[in-house]
Structure formats: C-alpha cells, structure tokens
Write a structure and sequence with these properties.
five-stranded parallel beta sheet, single chain, globular, 17% strand, six-stranded mixed beta sheet
Length: 325
Amino acid sequence: MIGDFIRAMRVKILHHDRCFDGACSAALFSSFVRRSLAPGAELSYAGLYHRADQLFNESDFNGDINVIVDFKYSPSERVTWWFDHHQSAFLSEEDAEHFRRDRSGTKFFDPGYKSCTKFIANTLSAKFGFDCGHLADLIHWADVLDGAQHPSARVAVEMKEPALKLNLIIESAETNMTPSVIPLLEAESLESIVDRPEYKREFGKLYEGHMQTMETISERAVYRGGVVFFDLVGTGLKGYNKFIPYYLYPQSAYTVSLLDGGFRAKVSVGSNPWAAVEPSHNLAELCERYGGGGHPRVGAISFKPEQFGEARSAALEIAEILSSN
C-alpha cells in the first residue's frame, strides 16, 4: 500500500482552519509525506470550518492523496488518510459505520487524545515507524493548547510563550495566515516564527485587540450558578481567547457564548480547566442535541447566518442546563 502512495505526486491536506492544533496536525503530516510517504510530492492545503450546511464538496478532494486532519469524517472514496480526536467526529451513524467497515489501514479515530497532533504523532510512530522527534516541541504545545493544559488562566491570557502568541495569530488575524504558517511549523521553531517581523507586528496588533476584547467580555458577561454567559453579536468580534472568562471569573465552572462568525452564528460552550470541582456535563453530547459537537470539556454549535434567534435560544437553554446542577 505504501508503495502505491509513493508513486502519487499531489498530496492535498485538509485541516481544521484557524486552529493551532489543525495547523500543527497539517505540518506534522506534511513532514511524514516529505520524509517517508512520498518524498518530492507536491503538497497543498485547504482549511475547513464547521458549518450548519455542507462541510465537504467532492471537488475538495482533488489530490492523488487526500488527507483530512483534525476534522470530521468524510465517507468519500477519494479520502485516503483521516485522523480525528473529536468525540463528535461523525455527522451521521452511516458515516460512523462507513469508518468501521474501512480496511485501508490509513483512517484513525481516538477521542481519548487531547490534541489531534499528538494522536497523529503516536499513530505514525506506532504503525509506520515514523520518528517525530524533530517536531517534539510542536507536538507538546499543540497538546497543551488544544487540551487546555496551561498551568493557569493567567498564563493562557497573558500569552508570553511563543506558542500562545502564534495561536492568537492563527485564530484571529484579519487575513488568514494559516496557509503560510503550516510550512513554517514544519521547518522552524515556534520562537523563530513569532520573531519574524510580520508575525511580531501582527501579534502586537492582535494583543491590543485581545485586551479590548477582555474589556468587552467583562462588560457583557453575566455570571449565574457557575456559568459565565455573554453575547458578542453586534460587537464585531468573531472570536476570543477562550480562557478570558475563567480569568475574569475564576470561580466559574462553564462558559456559554454567542458570536457572529460572518458565515455562521456560533454558540461556544466550555468548561473551566482550573475549576475547584470537576465539571460533570459532557459538553460534546450537550452540543450534539443542537446539531453541534466537540469534546467532553468543550463544544460548539454552528447555525446559519440568518439563525441568530435560534442560536441565542440554544445558548440560553444550555446556560440554564449547566447552571441548574
């Protein structure tokens, strides 16, 4: 099978867009391609977002090898490799059954991992003998960020580490910088990337906005029964550092927010990694009731842009559920 892959010349890697773990997953698999799977292959990338409508088009899979990392499953016969660690990886039971019947040996799922990057690293090492040691720092930080394993909310919000600075750039830059970041992640240290003049300028601008966002959330947040709720529709904000609520309300257990993402109305649901009492709700399962998903400790729901009423109702219902016990 690997011999067949080596003859292919075009590798298309589809990844969760504007996501540090998604970008790191793409960079790690790129290294596997260049060093082991298909040296000399032409690599291209495409970012994917969770939407209320169709997630994939068959035209997305236009490589000789098509790879999906850190994103939901597609049953397309053109998908060659797939890795995901989200509990809600399958859009339907039919997709889940399609995966269970797959005998390619190149599609992998394990919701026990905190980051897809570490899942890919361990899988490539165990099953294909690929040494990921040259990307150890990248793998470490992807696991810290995607698994919310920062030592404190202050560390997560102040963003002094290079990985945290780059995470802000990937998630929040006005012009999506993920396509240019992925090749750098494969070739350079995190510190050297954020020290590049264009990245240093971008971080400075975004960090100023980050501090303003903290003020906006502080003004709009309502705390009740262990839940921080805030509605950012109308503020122009399309995202925020998910640890700000726990920095502002360290006693909280959960966060529920509503955002205007431009192409979607988004409800985000999270749990405090530093809560005094372990959160008891499975947020992936809770979000699945409304057509969303995620992980046990963090989830989201995407609605169509015109469905802000439905999104707001869902957000308020979820906040009520989480605050009730």
